């Protein structure tokens, strides 16, 4: 392959982040397997570690979601490095807008040693692509709009979707997918374990 076509190919297949080539090409994204569960838990704990909490809330949430009917194995994805080590994880679980099915995204975790290299972005793009391919209509999350806006998330209120807690509004965002129906509006309900943590 010529240098030029090699450059063109890498521009096609690598994820650009703010105009530069991201290191995310160094990870592969795939579905989680049962053998990954312990490492996924460890990555989540490291990503959300706080000095005041031996076990982060997000790790407890992950544990609870795993045992819940809302867990969707096809939407629990890991990022693995060149050595096959899990360095990041994302999961989307069954949620609802009124009676209509929807997805709640999170936790999204990247091991601290691997952050800011595009791994989180690669996981997010993969999760959204998988959800779209599965004909899911929309994905909701709670997070910083400055980060999630780049993945097409907008304030959920723009689509008439209301958070379970009114104070969450500034951080409560939705990404609509191909199967989105604008008639689906109303109260958003996460999977039940979210209410327990
Ligand atoms: C948030 C997280 C998943 C992002 O993964 P990542 O691999 O570091 O992200 P990427 O490399 O794809 O993107 C990095 C960019 O996102 C921005 N970013 C990362 N986390 C952010 C956050 N919480 N808020 C705002 N921006 C954020 C960075 O500024 C960076 O932008 P830059 O490249 O212009 O400097 C990761 O930092 C993480 O696990 N954090 C701890 C857990 C967490 O907060 N999870 C999200 C809530 S569920």
From TrEMBL:
| Record carries keyword Acyltransferase | yes
What is this protein's record name? Putative acetyltransferase
Provide the GO MF annotations for this entry: acyltransferase activity, transferring groups other than amino-acyl groups
Domain named N-acetyltransferase: which ranges? Answer: 27-178
Q: Which organism is it from?
A: Krasilnikovia cinnamomea
Which keywords appear in this protein's UniProt record, sorted alphabetically?
Acyltransferase, Transferase
Database matches in Pfam families? Acetyltransf_9 (PF13527)
Q: Which InterPro entries match?
A: Acyl_CoA_acyltransferase, Bact_Acetyltransf, GNAT_dom
The question of whether Acyltransferase is a record keyword is answered with: yes
- Check the record and name the PROSITE patterns matching this protein: GNAT
